[in-house]
């Protein structure tokens, strides 16, 4: 039978855990709203941009296009950009992205490709370090960033593009989590180099546009921006997903703590009652013995 | 009364404007032009400059640093890398932007970077005037 004092301590400690998880949940809820607003504010730009890119890209035929669109001609070296959160305690969020990336990496390795990994966010790095640590070529730390800006995405894109120019890789994919709802985030992989706009809905019927300067020049100018834009929207989605995942994880934790407190309280009361009963028995049997 | 068209100005971080406009003056990479309703469909890249939007309630000005504009049947949309409403443009902001452009020019030493910096300086005098 557990000691009454121990039980009491246990209940107190679970209660303070519940307070912490409750607070974290509320903080995550507030941050989620902000992250969602940011994701929504970024959507019109990304949508228009991708629509225009898709239109431009469909006009490019054969291998004559820019490298960013048609690829470097080989598909030997793959760069995986794994975007995760800087902090844990958000359920399966980081783990799911890392898992998707690990599966992809192992598949590529099995095919005899070279795999390079660039991590964005500390947690993904930690998760992949043990089995894929040899493939790391860089890490982007966003822990100091309070509010995600386009500049952050732009910096990552610059890094990617200079590596691409240096022919460090042929294909780049980003791994992140798309935000469906507070309880559901889907880990997603998306190819950004060479750019893939095949799944973009161009919307209206193909209008014949005049291009100024030439179509190729615009494409050459916009493709690097497209990389940044895609990274930016992935980061925003990730931000919202992270907070959503944390919110539901902390909600669960709070509920579990509540259940645990109830159980422990019942046990505590029982033990106390047992002690009282014992004492009574002792007194009564003592009195009877007289 | 001139015919109206839908005008959108979006940056990666937010939508700056979504209004009915009668004309939009766009600093295109190959020269400025004014888009009005029923303009022929055009896609052009932008140079740093001042974007003027004429609406029934007045003229709005924005400083844009680059990006592209799409003029289509549905209206005009400008997707700017960075855009600031005229009211938000402070001398400090301009200074920062120009400093950054100059740094890029010194680092890259290409015609493009130099043109970017020059355009930006021109735009800044235009908007602060």
From TrEMBL, chain A:
The record's gene field reads atpG
| Membrane topology recorded in Swiss-Prot or TrEMBL | Peripheral membrane protein
Q: Which domain of life is it from?
A: Bacteria
* Matches recorded under Gene3D superfamilies: 3.40.1380.10, ATP synthase, gamma subunit, helix hairpin domain
As for family, the record states: Belongs to the ATPase gamma chain family.
The Gene Ontology terms for molecular function here are: ATP binding; hydrolase activity; proton-transporting ATP synthase activity, rotational mechanism
Biological process per Gene Ontology, one example term = proton motive force-driven plasma membrane ATP synthesis
Q: What does this protein do?
A: Produces ATP from ADP in the presence of a proton gradient across the membrane. The gamma chain is believed to be important in regulating ATPase activity and the flow of protons through the CF(0) complex.
**Location of this chain's protein in the cell:** Cell membrane; Membrane; Thylakoid
Kindly list the GO CC terms recorded for this protein.
plasma membrane; proton-transporting ATP synthase complex; thylakoid
Q: Which residues form a coiled coil?
A: none
According to UniProt, the name of this protein is ATP synthase gamma chain
Keyword vocabulary terms for this entry: ATP synthesis, Cell inner membrane, Cell membrane, CF(1), Hydrogen ion transport, Hydrolase, Ion transport, Membrane, Transport
Q: Subunit structure, briefly?
A: F-type ATPases have 2 components, CF(1) - the catalytic core - and CF(0) - the membrane proton channel. CF(1) has five subunits: alpha(3), beta(3), gamma(1), delta(1), epsilon(1). CF(0) has three main subunits: a, b and c.
NCBIfam families from the entry?
Answer: ATPsyn_F1gamma, PRK05621.1-4
InterPro entries in the record, alphabetically?
ATP_synth_F1_ATPase_gsu (IPR035968), ATP_synth_F1_gsu (IPR000131), ATP_synth_F1_gsu_CS (IPR023632)
From TrEMBL, chain B:
Alphabetized InterPro entries for the sequence: ATP_synth_F1_dsu/esu, ATP_synth_F1_dsu/esu_N, ATPsynth_dsu/esu_N
Taxonomically, which superkingdom?
Bacteria
Please state every residue range assigned to the domain named ATP synthase F1 complex delta/epsilon subunit N-terminal: 5-83
Q: Which UniProt keywords apply?
A: ATP synthesis, Cell membrane, CF(1), Hydrogen ion transport, Hydrolase, Ion transport, Membrane, Transport
> Can the keyword Methyltransferase be found in this entry's annotation?
no
Give a Gene Ontology cellular component term annotated to this protein. Answer: proton-transporting ATP synthase complex
Gene3D superfamilies xrefs: F0F1 ATP synthase delta/epsilon subunit, N-terminal
Which SUPFAM superfamilies does the UniProt record give?
Answer: Epsilon subunit of F1F0-ATP synthase N-terminal domain
Localization in the cell: Cell membrane; Endomembrane system
Task: Tell me, in one coarse class, where this protein mainly resides.
Answer: membrane
Tell me the subunit arrangement.
F-type ATPases have 2 components, CF(1) - the catalytic core - and CF(0) - the membrane proton channel. CF(1) has five subunits: alpha(3), beta(3), gamma(1), delta(1), epsilon(1). CF(0) has three main subunits: a, b and c.
Family, according to the entry, reads as follows: Belongs to the ATPase epsilon chain family.
Q: What is this protein called?
A: ATP synthase epsilon chain
Q: Which gene encodes it?
A: atpC
